[in-house]
Amino acid sequence: MQTIKASSFSPFHLNLNSTSSFPKITNLYIQQNYENPISCFPSIQSQNAKFKVFTAISPSVSTESETPFDEKTENENQEEKFEWYAEWYPIMPICDLDKRRPHGKKVMGIDVVVWWDKNEKEWKVMDDSCPHRYAPLSEGRIDQWGRLQCVYHGWCFNGAGDCKFIPQAPRDGPPVHMSKRACATVYPSCVQNDILWFWPNSDPLYKDIYLTKRPPYIPELDDSSFSKTFIVRDISYGYELLIENLMDPAHVQYSHYGIMNVPVAPKSVKADREGGRPLDITVTKLDVNVITANQGPGRNTFVPPCVYYSYFAFGGPQGKTSAVSSGTVQEKPSAEKQKKALLVFICIPVSPGHSRIIFASPRNFATWADRIIPRWIFHLGQNLILDSDLYLLHVEERKLKEIGSYNWHKACYVPTKADAIVVAFRRWLNKYAGGQVDWRGKYNGDLPPTPPRKQLLDRYWTHTVNCTSCNLAYKGLNALEVVLQIASIGVIGIVAAAKQGTLSVVARYSLVTIALLCFVASRWLSHFIYKNFHFHDYDHAFR
């Protein structure tokens, strides 16, 4: 039973933990609260953030308003802004990075190359362009001296971005490789929670930014008593829709019907076939640095721009809390171990219409399952969940683009408390963050054209090729398929070549049966590989 419960935390959404929205802002009851909210992650809470409680008070109020915010909000908006380029951004979990080769990634519209500097024993993040003639360094290699080599003309760079060798320069000539113009651009980077992060500003002033400002830290991801399995997937819709979708628990029973375990509604609550029911969600804090919300026993936190997590505990006594001098809240240890689980979503803006998600579901029970079950087995179900609403969100993004970010509150009808966190996120986006990701003029504002559905839902290039576990399984299963095909043909050949009377009737039929089974297994395996590592369409109409 513990195994079944453990596996239920691998999917991406749980009704228990997500949050949703209150109606329009002018119909919110705002109450000053002088106590800090309970947080399971004191290290990532803002220390000087304002604290207000926002509660939706009526399921039937109108969401239409003349302006997104009142005059006071606009004045506050002028004073406090979210700086998109003064934050740490995740790139990849280090478990999916190969130290033998460079990796090309795009974050915030910036093309970067990630590679392992064996001389300094750390990961480096550099601009993915050679200063010579702008060839992508991610297509290069790591040479025998541990330098990053451009595969176009052989220029070599160390971890500091200094050019160490230009093959075309005369050995007895001037040291042209020492020119500043020969240096590659290096970004500050760090590894935290086994995830590689980078600071999107190469100015030398930020070289030691890690000493003064660090990425959001989640202790459970480093706690050996918790399980930890990462999945990374590139998504064909934008950052805003990705965050909004993960904050919405009400869609789980419908978009992911039949593929996710969701809590059964109490008999006293009326629910439809899929299990949809009213949700009581309260946003407890909204400022430039954080959004927090409660839904029953679940607590939800958004730390801009990338981290959204849900925390819940069950079984055993509830831990008592006490405030400490720093203003945060810590949980006192309990005599009886309490079962705890988290859903951690790390959302990365890539470019308009494209985003990337890093997901982990740490828990402190049934942890043995993650140690004996290969990571790619978990990824099969998690990818199916992502696929089941990918197309509709891709289309929805284009409709919302026509409406405009600042018209979202007027265009979208959100009368129930199930949408509380979604409304809060849209308010944060418009009030503090300029309504959308700041691409700094790299794009003209248009979304990319919609590709064919098969290409949109393709898993190979968005996940398999970048996941060390799935890539290894993909190659192994393909090799097994070839082995089964060869075995089938070989056995048939033996039967055909055997002289009359050499094999008994029983042996002949046994060999033919083995050949047939090998053939059927190879065909089934081919279908399994294509369905789980390439393309799996999800038809909502027949669920």
TrEMBL record:
Keywords: 2Fe-2S, Chloroplast, Iron, Iron-sulfur, Membrane, Metal-binding, Oxidoreductase, Plastid, Transit peptide, Transmembrane, Transmembrane helix. The keyword Metal-binding applies. The chain crosses the membrane at residues 476-497, 509-530. InterPro entries: Cholesterol_7-desaturase, PaO, Rieske_2Fe-2S, Rieske_2Fe-2S_sf. One of its GO terms (molecular function) is oxidoreductase activity. Residues 88-198 form the Rieske domain. It is found in: Membrane; Plastid, Chloroplast. PROSITE patterns: RIESKE. GO terms for cellular component: chloroplast; membrane. This is Rieske domain-containing protein.
